[in-house]
Amino acid sequence: MPEPEGVKHMLEMDKDLPPKISEVAAKQGEDPEKTCLKIQQLRDMIYELGGCEPHRMDDDYLLRFLRARFWKVENSYKLMCRYYEFREHNTDLYENVNPMTLRSLGDDNIITISPYRDQEGRRVLFFKFGNWRPSKIPLTDLFKATLLMLEVGSLEPISQVVGGIGIMDLEGLSLNHAWHMSPSVAQKIIALLVTCMPVRTTAIHIVNQGWVFDTVFQMFKPLLNDRMRERLFFHGTDRASLHKHIDAEFLPERYGGTKPEYPYTYWLDHLCGNEKVVHELEQLGYVADPASEE
What we know:
Residues 90-263 form the CRAL-TRIO domain. This is CRAL-TRIO domain-containing protein. The protein contains 14 helices and 5 strands. The protein has helices at residues 19-27, 35-49, 59-68, 73-89, 103-107, 139-153, 157-162, 175-178, 183-195, 211-220, 226-230, 239-243, 264-272, 275-283, and strands spanning 111-113, 123-128, 164-169, 201-207, 232-236. A 5-stranded mixed β-sheet has the order 1-2-3-4-5.
């Protein structure tokens, strides 16, 4: 499918932050005069405490974890340890995974990512779980695609500072979907979106939810602390409620906005054609050659 004219599903990899984002970074504790010191403090802590063995220790890589935890070195170290523990226990989500094999999630419009940002500069991930057919697409593929998008998002300096937001559209959610949920699945979702990745999910907006979601959510409640609960917003079909958080001009038409919707496949095509991104993903265990797929 040809990409619409004027729309670019491309990562913004420039290390120099736009003025507005620089102001946000400063409020979060980012100080150019102390950047090198903080990075070295984190590097020293990794070597001294030995709680994890990062596959990289360069400045750009460590910077992601510091930004994700507002430049608090100890918290950044703990995040890194959780990140590598998650990777160790979920190797099936990335090892020898070819991103192009996840195209079906875009074809079925289950997961998409906006090529534009919201009013605060955040990327928006859309999850339409009602479109998911468990008999066709394994639950593991949803996790693979989500992890891939978060890993890619962590490459953008702007996203490292402002984070991203998720819109979970539960229209069409059925008992068939609910049967695939379990406490372990709930824990993995929270790990990906909240506790283990070097890019912050600043808010999750639930729309079009019904009674099936109310049943599933009972598994999540015991796992959520107060801070996590503060990031959850429930809107149902009330678009005005959603617009209090995300301006309508930055939302697709189906959510009362002005933007069209774009498939996930556009992102895959661009990512797989970007040598820097491919190299980053290969370091993480992904593969670009379909012949490598088992």
